[in-house]
Specification:
The chain is elongated, with a radius of gyration of 22 Å. The chain has one domain: SGNH hydrolase (Rossmann fold, 3-Layer(aba) Sandwich), CATH 3.40.50. Helix 2 runs parallel beside helix 5 and helix 4 packs parallel to helix 14. The protein contains 14 helices and 7 strands.
């Protein structure tokens, strides 16, 4: 009997050791992977960014602000820290992780705002993006604020990888050209399918999200960071479907007034009238993103000059 217990014990210990080794090996592989899902986090945690200006927000930040173009106009080192999915809880954590690992604090923080994609939850969206760094205790605690991982996913070696259905895709990545300073545009033409199905849109927020946003702004102001709000372009047809756009403007204006934040508004930019610049109603395509980035950079340069 003692022999069987010893054999079982050795088997369990061996399995734990092997699973831990495989878990660390896969995680380290993905931490060096150029796939879009991982590269933003890999930059923040593993590489010096030294950004003078950070852009944060939803996919409308990540897909639409070209650091290369903005760098060339402003002379600043710009990094795009936009997050696919719904942003507030995600980019708050992303900024916290950035601040923990990056020595240089940004001088300017551009925050994308608007009636679309500001206060959702983002739970479950591309949750595999968090897997490689869950082996780091600090990051694990941060990511738990974004995604409701199970105990086994957090603490059982290899479990989160073996239960992920797209394991091959997870390991090999999509192998596109990756990101440049957090940015990669979507090179697609207009698809109005979702827009045509959307009869109306309603801007909303709740008191908890407002408090979180207010606390985030207050903390950044206390750090001496210049905050800038930006309404990126959205196809004008969708804007016309918003049934309470005045409420949206009043909401963000009240925060801007409270913290003395300049607002850059492109809701009614000429770009918004032409579907040639969009791949759907809420996102610019490559042509639109780079046209917008140039205009934004020129306008931002004026804003920065006026604040000094």
């Amino acid at each position: 009997m003692k022999k069987y217990i010893t054999a079982i014990f050795l088997f369990v210990i061996t399995a734990i050791v092997l699973n831990t080794i495989l878990d660390v090996a896969i995680s380290c592989h993905l931490q060096g992977n150029g796939d879009r899902r991982y590269e933003g986090w890999n930059d923040i945690i593993n590489r010096p960014i030294n950004a003078d200006l950070l852009i944060i927000g939803s996919s409308r930040a990540r897909l639409q602000f070209s650091p290369m173009i903005i760098d060339s106009v402003t002379g600043l080192n710009v990094y795009n820290m936009g997050t696919d999915g719904e942003p507030l809880n995600q980019w708050k954590v992303k900024y916290s992780v950035y601040s923990h690992y990056q020595e240089k604090r940004p001088d300017v923080l551009v925050i994308t705002i608007g009636y679309f994609g500001t206060f959702g939850s983002g739970i479950g969206f591309e949750r595999e993006q968090y897997f490689p760094h869950l082996i780091i205790p600090y990051v694990r605690q941060q990511f738990r604020q974004i995604e409701p991982f199970t105990w086994a996913e957090l603490y059982v070696p290899l479990y989160r990888y073996t239960t992920y259905m797209g394991l091959y895709s997870l390991l090999t990545g999509w192998r596109d050209d990756g990101l440049y300073k957090g940015y990669k545009p979507m090179d697609k033409k207009w698809d109005g399918t979702a827009y045509n199905l959307q009869e109306s849109w309603h801007f909303w927020y709740d008191e908890d999200k407002l408090q979180q946003f207010d606390e985030f702004l207050s903390a950044r102001k206390a750090e001496g960071i210049l905050l800038v709000f930006c309404y990126p372009p959205i196809y004008i047809g969708l804007t016309h479907k918003v049934d309470n756009i005045d409420e949206c403007y009043q909401f963000f204006q009240s925060l801007a007034d409270k913290y003395d934040i300049p607002i850059m508004d492109y809701t009614y930019s000429p770009l918004c009238n032409d579907t040639a610049y969009f791949y759907n109603a809420t996102h610019l395509n490559k042509l639109g993103a780079e046209s917008f980035s140039l205009q934004f950079a020129l306008d931002l340069d004026n804003v920065l000059r006026s604040t000094h």
